[in-house]
Amino acid sequence: MAYEAGALDATLAAAAGDDAALFAELRAAFVDSLSRQIDLLRRARCDGNWQVAAMRLKGLAVSFHAEPLVVLADEALECAPGEPGVVRRMQAFLDELSAA
After folding, report:
1. What would the mean pLDDT of 63-67 be, rounded to a whole number?
2. Minimal CA–CA distance to 87: which of 98, 99, 75?
3. CA-to-CA separations, 42 to 16, 36, 46, 52, 97, in angstroms, rounded
4. What is the pTM of this model?
């Protein structure tokens, strides 16, 4: 799933206004939070931890209007805990976001 800057960057721009430094700081905070949540999902070994991590990812995605990430979080909520495919796709999303 490819990273699409549109809605996420628009949300960050609305919060930062004309302050480029604040925009960069908000974007970095989003990337950091996303990275931590993906790590928690990757390390989840039980249904409860998997569900909590997936819900946190979904909450983060919804808050910032990152629709592709919402789709991935929903997929994680529907699949078996530890599903490596969804974790790889989330990591790919993060990698593309970080490189953009």
Report:
1. 88
2. 75
3. 31, 10, 11, 12, 18
4. 0.84
Please count the other Cβ atoms lying within 10 Å of the Cβ belonging to residue 76: 26
**In the structure encoding, which two tokens stand for residue 85, read together?**
């495919």
Task: List C-alpha distances in Å: 12 to 7, 30, 56.
Answer: 9, 9, 19
Angle CA(55)–CA(59)–CA(35) in degrees, nearest 5?
A: 80
| Residues 1-50: tens digit of each pLDDT | 444 557 788 888 888 888 899 999 998 999 999 999 999 999 998 999 99
Whole-angstrom distance, CA of residue 78 vs CA of residue 87: 13
Going by C-alpha positions, the residue among 33, 39, 43, 37 that lies closest to residue 82 is 43
Average pLDDT, the chain: 90
